[in-house]
């Protein structure tokens, strides 16, 4: 129950009534990020769980917030048609664009509460324009009025079953509060019977655009027509010609000259709107609601209000003298002002005895009642209409009054109705206005259409339209591309004197202004032609440049230079003529003219600016931003389809059309805008920018965009109707990945449209049901084929269903099926979602194996099955024996309250199958990752029970099961890494390669991945995952020439996702390469004299080297050893060359590395047990994390400053598995010093010991770090020394000061300059905000030195000579590449790729760490830590590609949005960190870190690093060696739940 408090504004009062009277309130807002004048009240009622007075059971009203530009009234339909009472709170500025919906709301009890805009001086044209919509219209003015009329509006809607529009003058500022209306009034006024009957009415249509024939009806018994007063009073004989006659008469008396040119069209339609002229239906028990019914309802409701509140209202309200001779009819926001002025008038005042009348109910127009509302003495009526911009000669209200008063047989008002345009009036001008009105009214020949008051009013701040911040992405591109040539016609906030801001932002206004602008320029051209002939300049220079300009004036590009030359010459000339021309200097540019629109334009194209522009054929460009997220769209009713502006425009045949999405392809947006600008005719660029709220993160927008583009909801294309005339294509589909699917869709669509044409009764939803049916048939077919296969077997049947995300449940199910078959059972195994659910009741023995996803959810391939089983009411498993085995991790969610998620799907399924009468043959089995052998422990007990129950446990002579295929098998059978890669590449039926080839291609430097952002959606669409490949280059020491860099940039643009990734191991990585582009990419890399051989796989990978050339000669000498080691340990197989480089004709193609023989002297046919990584660090910078690699080499200087050799660390490594304590990160153990000439041999021998002793059975235990711990450091070292034939020397002295990069310029001893650029997380890309990629390319074009990649994913522009320096610096400034003014935390941060491409990612990393840092930065600023370096790293999974275990603060992904947090790493990368908290989300991360940073700022010792501080303060224990990583963690683990 809503407590009766106070309300301060009309909007507040109205919102409260709307909430209390509705099931659904649509709150229309300028932006979703800010409250509207209604929404604060709505939110507060919702927050206090206030119920509405019409609520069903315990349901609370639903508040739907919708942007004003998102066609808000569309949202009314679904709830309204499903029997809900819906109200809308909005402003009058949405009405015109909602016209297409209004008439559809006539026969549903929807209430639209509309506050008039602008608040200071509303324009009632917004109301008169929609007066024919069929809605009942009620108006109010003051706060009290607005509250009462809000109640009346809802009561009317309920009683009549019709849509009601309540319009009221809004509140510019809160006024004196009034008591909020009590619920007793609402209960009294609302007809409960009608409410119930509306809710249960059956047969409502669901389609929006079909006429479902629903009419508002009343069930009252109707007396005979003759007894209905209104019917008898209806001026049914008044015709259009009568009205024309009246108007002619009027015109004759006032302005004879204009009569013949006036078509009384508006008058005629106005007459038709006289609702009481409607034919009365014959009396039946149910009949349509008539205007007379509405009149009666309104009177009843007003009476109820009077009884409850003592406030009285009438349909027409008259005040003033009862013997008044003249009356003023006011239609606007100042009726009260007029009333008061007359009431206070002194006796002699000209208007003292004038009456005021207004219509409380504006539609239906009860004109026949009006004469009865006026005193008989009134002979003259002034009609004041507050309409700012008149479009017809006679005002709509004037015509309404004229019709009814003149038609009144006893009318004394002949020739005495005078229309006025009512402007802005306030208390200081009201008297003068009234005098003017009355004097004119009393004149012998009153002037019609006199203006009263000013047509402009003080600006109202609340009328400001906001452009959502996110939408500026496209504006920036337009600005960037067209610079001074850009002209935005209807940009919000543009200066359009005298025009309301909502109008100036409308398409129609923009279009009109563009046409005017084009005409103006045309005239300007003519003027220049004249001027050139006249020779009136001071010199003849301007004439010459103007002549030149005239030649290119209409060329968008050439006119820029010519315009600039002209402007310069005119300025220099100084003559009057020059000054005059300069006033219009913008016209010298051939403008790129754009109209900016929203997706709301799509709803009624025929009436919108889009249509006008297209049909005009003018050279106008439209940028239409669609912001509806794909997910929202997908979730919405399919029938609510917006019209496709693209197709609409293409059908016109004269327009350029492009569909673009900045978060999918930035380059395509550029192309489309440039094309549109060049196109001589209308252009439509549909731009996608999906967001729910204005403050949505770019990541959310990016993910929504990708889903929409990938699934084909938002295809990227460009259409030029004249493309073929120029030998190009008309249609370019730019979203390549869906090309085939789109083709298939188009074919299907064609087929369906034929079908629909033949059988119009089929709905447009046929497409949906078609897809569903196909999927169903596929399931059926798969099951039938299985059954066929089983026909030969004689044992009892066993059906095994699995749901699995990671593959464990699937593998168990398949193994169980193999074993079942071996025991003679008729066994089938399939994923739950592939199983036809209707067969379930016929099963005999059913086994379900299900793993746990997310927060206790079913895995993706079991969700539909579970929904069906859970919700079905007709599945009876009385004849089915079942058992369920679940897989989970009892420690995955450490908090007690989250324990319920442990094995939840398994438990739920077991219970449900039992509830629907299934017989449990074996109790639920629960596999737990925490058990000694993980889930296998429980499984080993559970499986024999199944065989026992089925009577097949003691079968003699069971054949041995084939062992599973391991990576070792794949390697040894691969013929030196060939496998069937070539065949897989040739297979065009899939974007993937086989699983075993996917293992082998890693050795060639490429991983198969799929786009995780769209995985679920594609699956739901029945598509294979969006496969693509990551390619990693081999680049020892991370050094590339500018030429090589440009080639990398080209490859990224041509074959990958237009970005370049600099990795944590100093190389270039490409993402999103499609299978068909894989070979071409590899060849292009080869042409850049690089390769990808051994960049991944179980071999020695890219060898790293500190890249900062502080001591240039020493760095150079050391770097040469990284190259030498890399080449020394390169695999020798020629498979790489064969598969990727050699073409059919050219056997001589050469790879950068020299791999020509099929013999692996170092590796042998099975290569290494796992990857092998080597890095070199040059003290004092540990910028390659020397402790984190299998082999870490610390470069040691000789006495002469040259390279003496290296201290060798062995056994570092990062990857672990969550909750598996047998896995841990490890820092390398010091073996000792080796001279430089033998270092490649030392690396080789260390590798050989690992090759022969590493664990080849368990890949989680196969890295060198485990071999060395299992064997003992000294033993390992001894074996290496045996192979080397010499001992490691004592390690030499060295000192590290940090493991981060040194940003900014440095100058080396050879006077060359080097700049370390900050490239956040190594991603080089262009965005609308920052053209970083373009900038680096521009530098590469002129740079003569090198680019060096760092181990922290940044880049050094290296070896810049002093001569080169100014140009490079200029470019850096131009492209903002010299910005290193970030916080110390950001500069010291690093994240791995993770989503969307990494298949192992459990959480975001590269896309999220920058966001998290931003949220921490204010706290760092406050604490005075802005410049303090704190090493923070994040990875999406515990594989640890960004080496998180060495950071002072680290986050490792556990599940989407949840991370394990680690603290206490050594600042120099020398000490591992330790687990501080498990599975925490952003909120908790901030809660922990903010106070900790503050403490650090206050309590640290001089120079103490954060990692050391948290240990000293006892926040975390130090990790002294890898084996102790899991000990003494900060968070005590909870006991198992059971
Ligand atoms: S750490 Fe994990 S999520 Fe990140 S890139 Fe490496 S494997 Fe992928």
Automatic annotation (TrEMBL):
Any single GO BP term: sulfate assimilation
Low complexity composition-biased segments: 253-278
Membrane-traversing stretches: none
Any one Gene Ontology molecular-function term assigned to this protein's record: metal ion binding
Subcellular location(s) per record: Cytoplasm
This protein's GO CC annotations: cytoplasm; sulfite reductase complex (NADPH)
Span list, region Disordered: 253-289
Biased composition (Polar residues): 279-289
Cofactor: [4Fe-4S] cluster; siroheme
EC number: 1.8.1.2
Protein family (similarity comment): Belongs to the nitrite and sulfite reductase 4Fe-4S domain family.
Quaternary structure, from the entry: Alpha(2)-beta(2). The alpha component is a flavoprotein, the beta component is a hemoprotein.
Name of the molecule in the record: Sulfite reductase [NADPH] subunit beta
Species: Terfezia boudieri ATCC MYA-4762
Lineage: Eukaryota, Fungi, Dikarya, Ascomycota, Pezizomycotina
């Amino acid at each position: 129950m809503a407590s009766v408090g106070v309300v301060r504004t009309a909007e507040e009062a109205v919102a409260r009534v709307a909430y209390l009277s509705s099931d659904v309130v649509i709150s229309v807002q300028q932006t979703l990020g800010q409250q509207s004048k209604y929404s604060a009240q709505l939110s507060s009622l919702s927050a206090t769980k206030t119920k509405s007075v019409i609520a069903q059971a315990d349901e609370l009203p639903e508040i739907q917030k919708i942007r004003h530009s998102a066609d808000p009234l569309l949202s009314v339909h679904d709830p309204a048609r499903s029997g809900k009472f819906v109200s809308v709170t909005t402003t009058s500025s949405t009405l015109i664009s909602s016209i297409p919906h209004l008439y559809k709301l006539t026969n549903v009890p929807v209430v639209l509460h509309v506050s008039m805009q602008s608040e200071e001086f509303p324009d009632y044209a917004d109301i008169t324009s929609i007066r024919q919509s069929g809605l009942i219209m009620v108006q109010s003015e003051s706060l009290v009025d607005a509250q009462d009329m809000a109640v009346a509006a809802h009561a009317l809607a309920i009683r009549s079953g019709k849509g009601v529009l309540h319009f009221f003058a809004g509140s510019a500022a809160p006024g004196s509060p009034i008591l909020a209306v009590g619920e007793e009034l609402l209960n009294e006024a609302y007809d409960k019977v009608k409410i119930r009957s509306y809710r249960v009415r059956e047969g409502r249509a669901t389609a929006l655009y079909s006429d479902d024939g629903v009419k508002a009806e009343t069930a009252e018994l109707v007396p005979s027509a003759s007894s209905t007063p209104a019917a008898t009073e209806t001026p049914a004989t008044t015709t259009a010609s009568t009205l024309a006659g009246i108007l002619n008469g009027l015109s004759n008396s006032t302005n004879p000259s204009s009569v013949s040119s006036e078509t009384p069209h508006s008058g005629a339609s106005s007459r038709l709107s006289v609702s009481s002229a409607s034919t009365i239906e014959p009396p039946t028990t149910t009949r349509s609601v008539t205007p007379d019914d509405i009149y009666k309802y309104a009177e009843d409701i007003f009476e109820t209000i009077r009884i409850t509140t003592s406030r009285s209202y009438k349909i027409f309200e008259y005040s003033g003298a009862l013997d008044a001779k003249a009356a003023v009819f006011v239609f606007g926001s100042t009726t009260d002002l007029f009333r008061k002025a007359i009431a206070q008038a002194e006796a002699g005042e000209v208007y003292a005895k004038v009456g005021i009348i207004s219509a409380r109910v504006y539609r239906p127009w009860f004109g026949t009642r009006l004469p009865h509302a006026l005193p008989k003495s009134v002979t003259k009526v002034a009609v004041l209409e507050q309409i700012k911009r008149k479009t017809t000669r006679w005002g709509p209200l004037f015509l309404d009054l004229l019709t009814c008063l003149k038609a009144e047989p006893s009318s004394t008002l002949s020739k005495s109705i005078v229309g006025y345009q009512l402007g802005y009036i306030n208390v200081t001008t009201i008297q003068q206005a009234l005098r003017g009105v009355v004097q004119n009214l009393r004149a012998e020949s009153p002037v019609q259409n006199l203006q009263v008051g000013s047509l402009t009013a003080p600006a109202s701040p609340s009328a400001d339209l906001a452009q959502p911040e996110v939408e500026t992405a496209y504006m920036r591109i337009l600005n960037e591309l067209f610079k001074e040539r850009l002209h935005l016609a209807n940009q919000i906030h543009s200066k359009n004197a005298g025009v309301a801001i909502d109008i100036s932002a409308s398409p129609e206004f923009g279009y009109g202004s563009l046409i005017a602008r084009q005409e103006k320029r045309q005239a300007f051209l003519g003027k220049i032609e004249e001027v050139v002939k006249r020779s009136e300049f001071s010199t003849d220079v301007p004439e010459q440049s103007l002549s030149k300009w005239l030649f290119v004036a209409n060329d968008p590009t050439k006119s820029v230079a010519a315009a600039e030359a002209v402007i310069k010459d005119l300025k220099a000339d100084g003559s009057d003529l020059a000054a005059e021309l300069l006033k219009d200097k913008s016209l010298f540019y051939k403008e790129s003219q754009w109209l900016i629109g929203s997706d709301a334009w799509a709803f009624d194209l025929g009436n919108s600016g889009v249509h006008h522009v297209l049909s005009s054929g003018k050279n106008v460009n439209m940028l239409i931003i669609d912001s509806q997220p794909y997910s929202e769209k997908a979730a919405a009713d399919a029938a609510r389809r917006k019209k496709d502006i693209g197709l609409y425009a293409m059908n016109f045949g004269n327009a350029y059309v492009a569909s673009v999405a900045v978060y999918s392809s930035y380059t395509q947006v550029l192309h489309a805008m440039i094309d549109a600008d060049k196109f001589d005719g209308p252009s439509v660029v549909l731009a996608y920018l999906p967001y729910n709220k204005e403050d949505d993160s770019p990541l959310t927008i990016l993910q929504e965009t990708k889903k929409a583009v990938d699934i084909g909801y938002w295809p990227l294309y460009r259409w030029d109707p004249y493309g073929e005339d120029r030998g190009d294509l008309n249609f370019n589909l730019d979203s390549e990945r869906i090309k085939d699917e789109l083709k298939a869709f188009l074919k299907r669509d064609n087929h369906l449209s034929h079908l629909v044409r033949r059988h119009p009764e089929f709905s447009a939803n046929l497409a949906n049901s078609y897809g569903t049916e196909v999927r169903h048939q596929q399931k059926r077919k798969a099951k039938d084929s299985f059954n066929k296969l089983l026909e030969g077997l004689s044992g009892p049947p066993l059906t095994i269903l699995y749901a699995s995300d990671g593959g464990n449940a699937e593998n168990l199910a398949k193994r169980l099926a193999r074993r079942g078959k071996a025991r003679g059972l008729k066994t089938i195994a399939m994923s739950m979602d592939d199983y036809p659910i209707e067969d379930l009741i016929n099963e005999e023995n059913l086994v379900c194996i299900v793993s746990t996803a997310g927060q206790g959810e079913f895995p993706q391939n079991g969700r539909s099955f579970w929904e069906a089983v859970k919700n079905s009411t007709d599945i009876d498993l009385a004849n089915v024996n079942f058992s369920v085995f679940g897989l989970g991790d009892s420690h995955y969610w450490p908090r007690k309250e989250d324990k319920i998620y442990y094995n939840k799907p398994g438990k739920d399924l077991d219970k449900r199958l039992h509830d629907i009468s299934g017989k449990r043959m074996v109790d639920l089995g629960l596999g737990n990752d925490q058990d000694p052998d993980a889930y296998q422990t429980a499984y080993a007990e559970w499986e024999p029970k199944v065989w026992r129950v089925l009577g097949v446990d003691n079968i003699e002579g069971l054949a041995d099961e084939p062992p599973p295929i391991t990576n070792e098998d794949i390697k040894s059978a691969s013929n030196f890494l060939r496998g069937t890669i070539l065949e897989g590449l040739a297979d065009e039926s899939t974007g993937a390669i086989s699983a075993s080839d996917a293992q082998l291609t890693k050795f060639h430097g490429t991983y198969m991945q799929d786009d995780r952002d769209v995985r679920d959606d594609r699956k739901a669409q029945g598509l294979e995952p969006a496969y693509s490949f990551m390619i990693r280059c081999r680049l020892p020491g991370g050094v590339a020439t500018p030429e090589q860099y440009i080639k990398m940039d080209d490859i990224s643009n041509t074959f990958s996702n237009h970005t370049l990734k600099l990795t944590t191991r100093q190389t270039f990585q490409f993402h999103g390469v499609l299978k068909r582009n894989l070979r071409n990419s590899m060849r292009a890399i080869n042409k850049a004299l690089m390769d990808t051989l051994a960049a991944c796989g179980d071999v020695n990978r890219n060898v790293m080297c500190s890249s900062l050339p502080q001591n240039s000669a020493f760095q150079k000498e050391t770097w040469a050893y990284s190259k030498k080691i890399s080449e020394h340990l390169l695999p020798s197989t020629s498979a790489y060359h064969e598969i990727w480089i050699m073409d059919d004709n050219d056997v001589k193609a050469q790879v950068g590395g020299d791999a020509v023989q099929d013999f692996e002297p170092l590796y042998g046919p099975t290569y290494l047990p796992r990857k092998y990584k080597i890095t070199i660090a040059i003290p004092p910078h540990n910028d390659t994390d020397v402790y984190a690699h299998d082999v870490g080499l610390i470069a040691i200087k000789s006495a002469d400053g040259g390279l003496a050799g290296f201290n060798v660390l062995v056994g570092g490594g990062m990857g672990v598995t969550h909750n598996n304590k047998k896995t841990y990160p490890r820092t390398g153990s010091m073996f000792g010093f080796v001279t430089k000439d033998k270092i490649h041999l030392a690396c080789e021998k260390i590798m050989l010991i690992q090759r022969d002793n590493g664990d080849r059975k368990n890949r989680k235990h196969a890295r060198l770090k485990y071999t060395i711990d299992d064997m003992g450091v000294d033993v390992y070292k001894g074996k290496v020394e045996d192979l080397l034939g010499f001992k490691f020397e004592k390690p030499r002295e060295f000192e590290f000061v940090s493991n981060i990069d040194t940003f900014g310029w440095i100058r080396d001893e050879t006077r060359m300059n080097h700049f370390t650029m900050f490239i956040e997380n190594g991603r080089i890309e262009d965005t609308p905000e920052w053209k970083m990629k373009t900038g680096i390319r521009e530098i590469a074009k002129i740079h003569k030195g090198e680019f060096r990649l760092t181990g922290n994913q940044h880049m050094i522009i290296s070896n810049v000579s002093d001569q080169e320096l100014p140009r490079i610096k200029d470019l850096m400034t131009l492209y903002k590449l010299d910005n290193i003014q970030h916080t110390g935390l950001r500069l010291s941060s690093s994240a791995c790729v993770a989503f969307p491409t990494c298949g192992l990612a459990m959480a975001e990393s590269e896309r999220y760490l920058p966001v998290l840092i931003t949220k921490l930065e204010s706290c760092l600023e406050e604490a005075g830590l802005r410049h303090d370096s704190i090493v923070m790293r994040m990875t999406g999974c515990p594989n640890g590609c960004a080496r998180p275990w060495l950071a002072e603060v680290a986050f490792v992904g556990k599940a989407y949005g949840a991370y394990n947090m680690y603290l206490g790493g050594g600042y120099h990368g020398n000490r591992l960190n330790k687990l501080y908290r498990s599975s925490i989300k952003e909120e908790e991360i901030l809660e922990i870190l903010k106070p900790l940073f503050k403490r650090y700022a206050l309590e640290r010792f001089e120079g103490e690093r954060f990692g050391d501080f948290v240990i000293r303060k006892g926040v975390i224990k130090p990790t002294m060696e890898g084996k102790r990583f899991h000990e003494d963690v900060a968070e005590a683990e909870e006991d198992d739940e059971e």
